[in-house]
Amino acid sequence: MTKPAPPVATTSDLDTAVAAAHHRYRSRRPVSAAADERARRVLPGGNTRSVLDFEPFAFRVASAAGAELVDVDGHRYVDFCGNYTAGLLGHSPAPVRAAVTEALDRGWTLGAMHEAEIELAELVCARFPSIEQVRFTNSGTEANLMAIGTALHHTGRRGVGVFDHAYHGGVLGFGDVDGPHHPLNVPHRFRVAPFDDVDALDAFFARSGDDGDDDVGCVLVEPVQGSGGCRPASLDFLRALRRRCDEAGALLIFDEVMTSRLAPGGAQERFDITPDLTTLGKYLGGGLSFGAFGGRRDVLAAFDGRAGGTLTQAGTFNNNIASMSAAVATLRHELSPERIREVNERGDRLRDDLGIVFDRADAGMWVTGMGSMMNIHTGDDRLLDLLFHHLLDDGIYVARRGFIALSIEIGDDECDRLVTSTRRWVERRAGAPLRGTPT
What we know:
It is a single chain. By secondary structure, the protein is of the alpha/beta class. It has two domains: 11-88 and 338-430, Aspartate Aminotransferase, domain 1 (Alpha-Beta Complex); 94-334, Type I PLP-dependent aspartate aminotransferase-like (Major domain) (Aspartate Aminotransferase, domain 2, 3-Layer(aba) Sandwich), CATH 3.40.640.10. It is built from 13 helices and 16 strands. It has helices at 11-27, 30-42, 94-105, 115-127, 140-155, 201-204, 235-248, 267-271, 297-300, 321-334, 337-361, 381-393, 412-430, and strands spanning 61-65, 68-71, 76-79, 133-137, 159-163, 189-193, 216-221, 224-225, 231-232, 251-255, 277-281, 291-295, 365-370, 373-378, 396-397, 403-405. α1 (11-27) runs parallel beside α12 (381-393), α3 runs antiparallel to α10 and α4 (115-127) crosses α10 (321-334). The longest helix is centred in the last third of the chain and has 25 residues, at 337-361.
């Protein structure tokens, strides 16, 4: 018996369904609605972090514990957004809380150096073999800015190589190869090449003048693009990029702010590629603000005045005791190699299961990613909006754009719940049950 084709949704059908989902959302969240109205009077758009906003208005969280969020209207959600990879530990892990509390009991606005930053630097250098020395910042954005500046100082060039749809922070966002790019970008001399395209590297590294100062001095790349849709680079591409940087005398910077969660030693361990500089952030601070950049000793020597270095790095809170103590506790007590491998293996299984659901329904949706990072895609954003609101109704929170980042608090039961809820939504849209998909 031939399986009947799923009904084709018209533009009117989708618009009606989205309007109904938004109405349902509004009616169930009066406290969130009031908070949004209040926020918009003093905050443009009602927020200071644009990615958290969605239609018809964002919910506000009242409390969080483990893998669960509770919004101000009392709705509970399993948190699959994971604060866009920063929430790898889940919410309020006990060792981190204890470490921060103990540090604060000793005073926190020190204006001096302390033991925790030395201990943290030792832990970071031991965990990531490419990092011989490290310096701390307040965020991954700052880490990428500092890494770029350090690399250009080392090479004496001005060109910065990046890739389409890359995001390296609020002032380092890129769209298509020929633009447009983020209007708030810092004014470096960027060259933008297609991501994961080996052949395009020829033009990328082409010399631009006789003096060579505009040539590419460094290349900044995410081994798996996070905000760009969880697009993994191929091993061939990263190997070619490493080789071409060596041939051109450019430094290779791995932005591992997100991807360092993909293996005990980061994505660079998973791909077996060694960058010259690495940037870190997000989850390594245990949920507090954190960033770091590090790499080859000869490159970082630029910050060592006693060795003739001429660079300085300002930042009142670079070594703040709360973040340093939280990160030490994270690396010492929470992120064992076994736990890192487990959460990434669980993510691979979840991505496969979701992919099967979409494939068997011919839903026009698919999933990309690696390990504990993944993104659901569709050719029509309204479908993603509908799935997002359906999952919220089922007590499951993913990012509005379909981004998912597992925490170590998420288990197989929670993943099964997400797959089952997604399957139920797909079946309802297809008008028929799916056979043989995970339940």
